[in-house]
Write a structure and sequence with these properties.
Layout lengths: L1 H83 L5 H27 L31 H25 L6 H22 L5 H4 L8 H19 L16 H20 L8 H30 L4 H18 L5 H24 L8 H19 L15 H31 L7 H6 L1 H6 L17
Helix pairs in contact: 1-2, 1-3, 1-7, 2-3, 2-4, 3-4, 3-6, 4-12, 6-11, 6-12, 7-8, 7-9, 8-9, 8-10, 9-10, 9-11, 10-11, 11-12
Length: 471
């Protein structure tokens, strides 16, 4: 009897343990999927964070590369200008173009970038006229803050644009600008005149609030530089010995052609880089194709228009024609279809030739046609968005489902920027002229600005230096 009781108790214990074990195993088995699911979810979150970080780094890497291309355009401007002007001013032209980058880099760091992208009252209806807070010296960022890297990348990219605006102005005033005056006006342009334009537009100011479209700077960069060039050339007066109707021959079309190729190459950074990222392949591809087509069409438009008038294939107009197409498409490269990019380029080539003739009749000595290429064609390309812009691309135009609204916004932006830049630069140049630091000394007109201001010649074996009367 006792043995049976013992046996029953032993069996009961085993059965109880088996039941407990079963329940415990089941609970463990049920916990495992939950643990696996949590781990899987954590891996997904980590993958998403990693993908976002990779895209962020890729975007800013592309912006940096594009900025390098835009900066390299300084070399293109220097070679184009040096090739288009007379031999006696090439050294001065190279020096001025180089200093555009140096001076603009410093003043844009000190104050220009702060004005361009300063903060304003977000509740102010219609955007701001001037920033309420101007962060000087990049708000003292030192590379240790969480957002410092993105800030530095953005600054560099925008500095390259500011340098381009200053260099455009230099071309129209070539061969007769006092070097000291050149340094001063480049500083003012990079510190105040250009940054105010940027704040009103890309910086989110009042022109942007009107619906103004300028993807990469036809008006913001190019027309700004072109208007400064025109006003400066007017205040300076013509070069010594200048005969209107018979502009001086280019000193080196080889240099000019190479400079144009460099500019065209750099323009891909200018336009495609303005996507400010590398994630939207459709946008990158469209901007690249539109930029290419407008450049080719601009060269053809200027070449054939000139041939019909003069019966000559003028290489200078071919080179400037391609630049005219590039300038014109810069505003709308993300807002028009490829076929309309061709139309804009062709018409820009014609606008270039007509504008050069008009400026010549006004007896304003624009040494390299800076206003016609950048000012006239920049305004033209910006306005064309309101006429042939694509509704599907966010620019409803007169010919694609829109009304006058887009065209009116474009016209407002162009007019206001031209008025601001024209008045500000006129005051600046008149003051510089009054204090006698705008025009070179008359002796420089006699022996050449290279010999007088730099005591150098770009071709010393072919073009020996002429001595001043005091030597």
């Amino acid at each position: 009897m006792k043995r049976r009781k013992f046996l029953y108790r032993l069996i009961s214990i085993f059965v109880g343990l088996a039941i407990l074990y079963s329940f415990g195993f089941g609970a463990i088995a049920q916990d495992e999927p939950a643990t696996e699911d949590a781990a899987a979810e954590e891996m997904v979150v980590e993958a998403e964070i990693t993908a976002a970080e990779v895209q962020f780094n890729l975007d800013h890497t592309w912006i940096l590369i594009a900025g390098f291309l835009v900066f390299f355009m300084q070399a293109g401007f220097a070679m184009l200008e040096g090739g288009m002007i007379r031999e006696t001013g090439v050294v001065n032209s190279l020096a001025e173009n180089f200093m555009d980058a140096c001076i603009t880099g410093l003043v844009f760091f000190l104050v220009g970038y702060g004005i361009a992208y300063g903060t304003y009252d977000a509740g102010l209806e219609g955007g701001g006229w001037l920033p309420a807070h101007i962060p000087l010296l990049l708000d003292n960022a030192d590379g240790t803050g969480a957002g410092d890297g993105a800030l530095f990348v953005g600054f560099f990219f925008q500095f390259a644009f500011a340098g381009a605006a200053a260099t455009i102005a230099t071309g129209g005033m070539a061969e007769r600008t006092n070097f000291v005056g050149k340094l001063i006006y480049s500083a003012i342009l990079g510190a105040i005149i250009y940054p105010v334009v940027v704040f009103w537009t890309w910086g989110g100011g009042w022109i942007a609030a009107q619906g103004f479209i300028d993807f990469a700077g036809s008006t913001i960069v190019h027309m700004t530089g072109g208007v400064v060039a025109l006003v400066g050339a007017y205040v300076l007066g013509p070069r010594a010995g200048r005969v209107f109707g018979r502009p001086p021959a280019a000193s080196n079309l080889g240099f000019a052609a190479l400079g144009t190729f460099i500019l065209w190459f750099g323009w891909y950074g200018f336009n495609v880089g303005s996507a400010l990222g590398a994630s939207d392949v459709n946008l990158l591809g469209l901007v690249t194709v539109n930029t290419t087509l407008a450049a080719t069409a601009g060269a053809l438009g200027a070449m054939f228009h000139t041939w019909f008038v003069t019966k000559h294939w003028n290489v200078s107009f071919v080179l400037n024609g391609s630049l005219a197409g590039l300038v014109a498409i810069t505003a709308g490269c993300a807002s028009v279809t490829p076929i309309n990019a061709v139309i804009i380029g062709l018409l820009a080539g014609v606008v270039l030739v007509v504008s050069i003739g008009f400026v010549e009749r006004l007896k304003i000595d624009d040494a390299v046609g800076a206003f016609s290429v950048h000012g006239a064609c920049g305004a033209f390309g910006t306005l064309m968005i309101g006429i042939v812009g694509s509704q599907a691309l966010g620019a409803p135009s007169l010919l694609d489902g829109g009304t006058l609204e887009t065209l009116w916004s474009q016209l407002t932006g162009v007019a206001v920027v031209a008025i601001w830049v024209g008045i500000a630069s006129y005051v600046m140049f008149v003051v510089l002229n009054r204090i006698d630091v705008l025009h070179v000394h008359p002796e420089a007109d006699r022996i050449g600005i290279d010999a007088y201001e730099h005591h150098a010649s770009v071709w010393p074996n072919v073009l020996p230096l002429r001595e001043t009367e005091d030597d």
